[in-house]
Amino acid sequence: MPPAIPLATYRLQLTANFNFDAAARVVPYLKALGISHLYASPFMKARKGSMHGYDITDHTKFNPELGGEEGFARLAAALQDNDLGLILDFVPNHVGVHYDDNPRWLDVLEWGQASPHAASFDIDWDQLPYRARGGVLLPILGSFYGDALEHGEIELRYDANEGSFSCWYFEHRLPIAPERYGEILRVIVKDTGAEQSEAGEKILELASRYRGLRHPNRKEAPAFKAELKDIPGAADIIGQGLAAYRAGPDRPAQTLALHHLLERQHYKLGHWRLASSDINYRRFFDVNTLAGLRVEDAGTFEAIHRLVKKLIADGQLQGLRLDHIDGLRDPAQYFQRLRRLIRDARGPAAQPFYVVIEKIVCEHEKLPHFAGVHGTTGYEWMNVITQVLIDRKGLEPLDEIWRQISNISPRLEPLLKAAKRRVLETLLTSEFTVLTRLLARIANGHYSTRDYSEDSLRQALELYVLHFPVYRTYLTGAGPTAADRALIDRAIERARAEWFASDGSIFDFLRDALTMDLVKGDRHATHSAPRVRRFALKVQQFTGPMMAKSLEDTAFYRYHRLLALNEVGGDPAAQGLSIADFHALMRQRARDWPHGLTATATHDTKRGEDARTRLMALTELPNDWTSTVARWKLLNAPNVVTEGNMRAPSAAFEYMMYQTLIGIWPVHGAADTLPERLQAYALKAAREGKQETSWLNPNEAYEKGLRLFIERILDRGRSPEFLQSLETLAKRIALLGALNSLSQITLKATMPGVPDFYQGTEFWDLSMVDPDNRRPVDFAAREAALREVEDPDWASLTQHWPDGRIKLAWTRHLLKLRNEMALVFTEGSYEPLEVSGPHREHIIAFARRRGRDAAITIVARAFAPLTDSGRVWPGPNAFDAAVSLEGYRIVDGDHVSALPVSSLFSHLPAAVIGARADRAVHPLQKPAAAQADASTG
Hints:
A hairpin with a 2-residue loop joins β9 (about 165-170) and β10. The protein has an eight-stranded parallel β-sheet with strand order 16-15-14-5-2-1-20-17. A four-stranded antiparallel β-sheet has the order 21-23-27-25. The two termini are about 20 Å apart. The protein contains 33 helices and 27 strands. The protein is an alpha/beta fold and about 950 residues long. α5 (about 180-190) packs across α8 (about 235-240) and α19 (about 480-495) runs antiparallel to α20 (about 505-515). Helices cover about 45% and strands about 15% of the residues.
């Protein structure tokens, strides 16, 4: 039986090309590697061809493209045979919509607010202008609505098997409201001249029985459809008569008829560009095909968790990773419900059930405690590892070169603020408009605030959003915590400082609305309490996507001071961590969140974990890097594409490309696929940056220039001197990056937390952002290599370090230790160890300790001076430092007060050794999640 708290997790990306059976085949390999839990991407029914699984269309079914229920059963059996647990990446926040594959969404389109599923979607029904009835905007058209209509791209069809009508726009199904069926049928029978035929008479008789504005209603419609499809000859008449609605060139009457029919539906069709300004359903970020779910609705919660509950009850699911919890209206309520569901499924006496959340924790932000949650997916700890491994002294020269090349200050705040403005103006305008209108309605609801105009409120709210420093607050219906109130107050005061209008009291009103103080105490009868609560909670759902799109998907692609720091949850302007600060954070984590994941690569990271460790090394060679980049700019000046005032790439983007090349360049030369991969990455990066080009408004000339620049600089016939210089520096950076990587995985495997391994990263991971990091993994090669390193020859592995087997062997060694000393690593304390000697700043040392059992970890950092600036692999004599062992005795070793690092680093710059403490210490107090689980069991 796998442990309740994982020892190590392994993330697999399931697709049609790597399904349940493919996953089952690698389970024995994962067991041999030392993994305790397979961590699977979403496997509920998703959109056909999905490469990630987050576009779920039915939470209650397995994805048939992955093998369906039978395929899952085979995977579950393989896991059970190998004693591995299963953690599911579950998506409670949104579902895939549009097209024709989500029955609940289609029901909402057919019935509007009368649909029982309408409560599941966060739709502002009354927002569409110039309509007598509410509706939802569907921004699915590739051209203007009028053009699509007149060109016959929207077509009314009849499904004879269902007795139903739908409009179709290519692959998008648009159900027609049944209350319009009578109108359609009368027009069809008349247009075909079938009034006197038997079938025509029956069709008209059926239509005549359902008169009135709302008939047939939902209760009557099934019988209506069944009777219609059973009328002999009806399908032929309808098929012929649909010509009355067949829009097209030179068919004005039919075009107008179809338009009038569409205008009477529960939806409004629109050009895809309208989404940014007019959309009225909550989305996942700015993705139109992913609609937000209202899991605060009890029925919706029950429906989407039905299959999960069954898997938990059947013992086939041992953990959940919850996607995008910042999109939920009330996460605290959600986790309380989830905890009850898990308890009901497993019984009150079961072990704790493992739950982690995808939550971006910003610098200096503390993770809120939620019921039953063991921690996050580990982005913050990935960035902590990066910051302690970089050489802080090298950041100042990198600041200067960035300033000179880009003419941009190394300060991130102004750039982030500009990015937020761009996102507000382009991508999330519609969501912001919903909030503004709701705030204006609140203000207009009482005489004391009715003079705050909607325009002024919009400006004030915009300033608040621009200055809001984290992803979101976590207010509940009871109001804000002290921490949330402090965040709101700080953002309000910073916004007020930039307000130049006459009346600053508008910010007092805004603050009271955001904190819900507006409806507390004596003020209870003044403003609408439901509206105030709705506004305050909806703002929380907005600021998360706002920050994500502004920071991760915009600023990270504009600010290129050191790309190793441009990582999800990270601070690109960070100054690095001292070893003492790292120890303090680890002691705090061991106390508060010892069981959250520690990631170094995920499906969402901006670059592969070993590309990042290479880029860390730039801080160790800042002078070499600066002079080399200056030379590259001169060599590649003829390769830059210019056209008028356009320069492709821009100077800042060119600098980003050089860092990217250093991060991904293969030691043995570029593969044939590298130019194509790099061009795809450059296109995505440029569009995400939203400067010279963007997803909304592609600049074809600039994008063509980017492709041509990359093609030119990677052409050995055209750029031999540049490529020779690149390869010379890349070899040195690659060696330093490999050493950093070994330190990184050692820290990940032994510091507090559960190490998470992304698929394929047992070898060097030099990938770029998705989809590059989701390429197929050669598991056969990894399985063969694992057998070869069963009894590792470390000297040979270090000699052939470029082939990646050294990383695989070291990973296996670390996981073997975790399995042998499981309680030390899952329950042990964290104790920093003192380091002495000339190279003490190059060594991180600590002990994990439970009772008298202990594991001592020693890793090196900042390798440049120890490796002739990356030219030679360091031998043991390169390290002149000693680790204090006061209070510890090495297992099977002499009792010494200090241990020379050189005695441990025979081949690798990292070591983990078993030890015995001179005195016992008690295990740490249970973290909040475990206490919560115990209290409910």
